[in-house]
Amino acid sequence: MKNIKSYVQENKQRFLDELIELLKIPSISADSAYKQDTINTADAVAKSLKEAGCDVVEICETEGYPIIYAHKIIDKDLPTVLVYGHYDVQPPDPLNLWTSPPFEPVIKTTDLHPEGAIFARGACDDKGQMYMHVKAMEFMTKNNTLPCNVKFMIEGEEEVGSVNLGKFVKQNQDKLSNDVILISDTGMIAQDTPSITTGLRGLSYVEVEVTGPNRDLHSGLYGGAVANPINVLTKMIASLHDDNNHITIPGFYDNVEELSLDERAQMAKAPFSLDKYKAALDIDAVYGEEGYTTNERNSIRPTLDVNGIWGGYTGEGAKTVIASQAFAKISMRLVPNQDWENITDLFKNHFESIAPKGVKVKVTPHHGGQGYVTPIDSVGYQAASKAYQETFGKTPIPQRSGGSIPIVSLFEQELKSKTILMGFGLDSDAIHSPNEHFGVWNYLKGIETIPYFYKYFTEMHK
Ligand code: BES
Ligand code: MN
Ligand code: MN
């Protein structure tokens, strides 16, 4: 595959221009105001897969946004790689914190990306990383180096829980049959430290509502005499962690997979600087569960975090009021063996049980999914490892990530195949935050590395 490097160099500008066009379409799946844009993005992805040499490209309608399915089957006796990605993006707010508009992509240099990075919502998560696969496909079909069968499944609802994709997978097991699933929707340790993600956390996402008096009240006339829903909610939330930052929900840790000291020692070998970590976030100390390191806290341990909290008066100036209601959105990141539906039930029962008299509490589950871990001795992992060795000159480090892609465990359950997570973004690329970006170097390196995965996977697959 000598010419992949030169192919990338020759087509670099076009690869960037095409991605920039895709990034201009605001495919915000969470916000119905962007419905037409999201549908247009699906069409653009379908078109790009056709141009990249897929023989069949289908826009599969669902109750939500369409799923793009495409394939090129060259020989039924050869293995099949299924590529998954998502074309939807997170909402860009708060808009005022962006240094350039989220859907007007620009290339700017940063300390970590001296060769430039594309700034736009979705640049890294996941349009940029998904498009690397489209361009790698283009290279393989144009240069007659495609060694196996390829299927693509690109969805538009990952950021809102992949509900319709779950149904689609269950109903289309034959269509989606494969020997390995390949995803670029995670990160790597650093530019000079490639890594392969071997674990994802599960997720349970709930919304809670505390209702006190039947109307907002004057905080002088009634304050101190009735339960204030905001006071109550914050106290209830505070009680969900103890002084060691352990979660207090009974049964929460029952099924948590405990890593051996040896496994934890292996993990600790991954390069990591606590000082750089703190400096990058402008914090003077890290915070978290007693007895675990930062990298353990954010990957192998479960967590509970408030993602948003509201109620009462938040406008300009002061208004003396006791709100009738208070609300919060809470996410729990889960680790292998914790079942998200069970954890959701435990949360609901516990949260309702700790409500003081004088308020009503309602817990509404949103979405969730199971965690995932994958061994490093599989053919898929080994093929990915060799691919990185080829293009980075280094053996990638296996690393469990703190993020979630709930559909991955469903893939394993329904399609009986392992997923290989070859992520090329950096944690500092600000996914889900203002000023999301994706290094030009990373984008091109991804395109260069992916064809080697196909080559080695096909060679090593018995
Ligand atoms: N691509 C991310 C997940 C991710 C990012 C995993 C970096 C590992 C490293 C994905 O798009 C995402 O944001 N997932 C959500 C869950 C989903 C159900 C909304 C998440 O992790 O919050
Ligand atoms: Mn993603
Ligand atoms: Mn995301």
From TrEMBL:
<dbReference type="InterPro" id="IPR002933">
    <property type="entry name" value="Peptidase_M20"/>
</dbReference>
<dbReference type="InterPro" id="IPR036264">
    <property type="entry name" value="Bact_exopeptidase_dim_dom"/>
</dbReference>
<feature type="domain" description="Peptidase M20 dimerisation">
    <location>
        <begin position="199"/>
        <end position="358"/>
    </location>
</feature>
<keyword id="KW-0378">Hydrolase</keyword>
<keyword id="KW-0479">Metal-binding</keyword>
<dbReference type="Pfam" id="PF01546">
    <property type="entry name" value="Peptidase_M20"/>
</dbReference>
<keyword id="KW-0645">Protease</keyword>
<dbReference type="InterPro" id="IPR011650">
    <property type="entry name" value="Peptidase_M20_dimer"/>
</dbReference>
<dbReference type="Pfam" id="PF07687">
    <property type="entry name" value="M20_dimer"/>
</dbReference>
<dbReference type="InterPro" id="IPR051458">
    <property type="entry name" value="Cyt/Met_Dipeptidase"/>
</dbReference>
<protein>
    <submittedName>
        <fullName>Dipeptidase</fullName>
    </submittedName>
</protein>
